[in-house]
Amino acid sequence: MSLPSDNAASMRRYAQHAATYDRSAARTMPLRLRTIASLGLQPGDVVLDVGAGTGLSFAPLQQAVGARGQVLAFEQSPEMFALADARARDAGWRNLWQVCAPAETVRLPKAPDALLFNYVHDITRSAEALNNLLGQARPGARVAMAGMKFFPWWTGPLNLLAWLKNRPYNVHAAELWQPWDRVQARCGHFEWCSTQCGMGYIAHGRLRDDGRALHQGGAA
Ligand SMILES: C[S@@+](CC[C@H](N)C(=O)[O-])C[C@H]1O[C@@H](n2cnc3c(N)ncnc32)[C@H](O)[C@@H]1O
User: Fold this and answer.
1) In what order do the strands lie in the sheet with 187-195?
2) What is the mean pLDDT of each run of 10 residues along the chain (220 residues)?
């Protein structure tokens, strides 16, 4: 598979972090559940877990969409995907479809009603990835996002801390002022709020019809 250099760098990082990922993500579980709740999932919905990592969101997503719904997921790091795959096999989920593939090119088997972007900063900063994913969503699909952001500018050096925390995981670690803005630009209704004393955010919204179409604004 030939990948853009950003993806190759991200894959090297997650190859190193896969084994310890679940432990490091445990403390943000309440935030994950809050972000998933903001999708307003209903039984029968199709939800896409974008850059699903080790599959930590699978259980709450499965619970929300029920047996009639479906969870779709993709992840580009083979090491993270192997852990997600093992999780799914252990749980025996029948309505989960997942594939090891990059956001820029993944093909989904059906159009999602809702998309979860949980701590996938590099994907939300890539116009190519957003074009591909949002272009396959249902008109008016719901989106929810969570991740890190910079503190307000007047806190000065504190942002060095945010950058240092983000850098081991994300290629675009410097783009933390409004990390949601490329998704927001595709949405009609969109709300965000600060979390973790200003170091994080959660957001949710609904795609505009023309938000699904190819969007040329912004570099990948
Ligand atoms: C911080 S982890 C979050 C994983 C998961 N969303 C969660 O909530 O636990 C970011 C994940 O995004 C994946 N990722 C980054 N860029 C990607 C891309 N372009 N395509 C697919 N996956 C990507 C990484 O491999 C990593 O597993």
Assistant:
1) 96-100, 70-75, 46-49, 114-118, 142-148, 200-207, 187-195
2) 73 92 94 98 98 98 97 98 98 96 97 97 94 96 94 76 76 82 95 92 93 53
> Is the distance from the beta carbon of residue 96 to the nearest atom of ligand 1 less than 6 Å?
no
- CB contact at 8 A, 102 and 7: yes
Is the C-beta atom of 51 inside 6 A of ligand 1? Answer: yes
**Superfamily classification of domain 5-210:** Vaccinia Virus protein VP39 (3.40.50.150)
Residue whose C-alpha is closest to residue 123's, from 171, 168, 167: 171
**Position of tokens 């949710």?**
204
- Cα(167) to ligand 1 centroid in Å equals 14
Assess whether the C-beta atom of 6 lies below 6 angstroms from ligand 1.
no
E-strand stretches of the chain? 46-49, 70-75, 96-100, 114-118, 142-148, 187-195, 200-207
Q: What is the DSSP letter of 69?
A: S
Q: Give the pairing of strands 46-49 and 114-118.
A: parallel
By alpha-carbon position, which residue is closest to atom 8 of ligand 1? 118
CA of 217 relative to ligand 1 center, distance in Å: 23
- 127 near 175, Cβ under 8 Å? no
